[in-house]
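Structure ticket #2291
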Amino acid sequence: MDRDDRLLQFLLYGGVHLLIAVILWTFPMTVARKLLPSASTAVPVTFSAKDLARVGCALFGLWLLMNKFYTFSSLICTAALDPSFRITALPLESKVDLVVSLGELILGVFLIVRSDLFARIVGSDRPLT
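Resolution: structure written out below.
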């Protein structure tokens, strides 16, 4: 492998991580705008238990996403940089870890997108003082 190929691999690896960082930087603001009321209201904001349960559920989903996103980004970069990489060649423990990580990633997306389902089970609409 010559120097130009290694430089290209380095730039690709760094570029992918930079793109992921930019996406993750803007994603929480989108979720925050969806969950929180607009700042233009001059009335004091009261939260119900249902609202707090939605925020907590979405934050837990974000935490799951952040913890498991690294597993998949490193796998994608490894597969892109190493042409001989095969998932079938991984040990059984790594395959199980990938399946569990995928499940947690799906659960995290579900908790963010459908936080209202969890909030209906846990909280009431009565405002907290």
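Closing remark: The chain has a mean pLDDT of 79.
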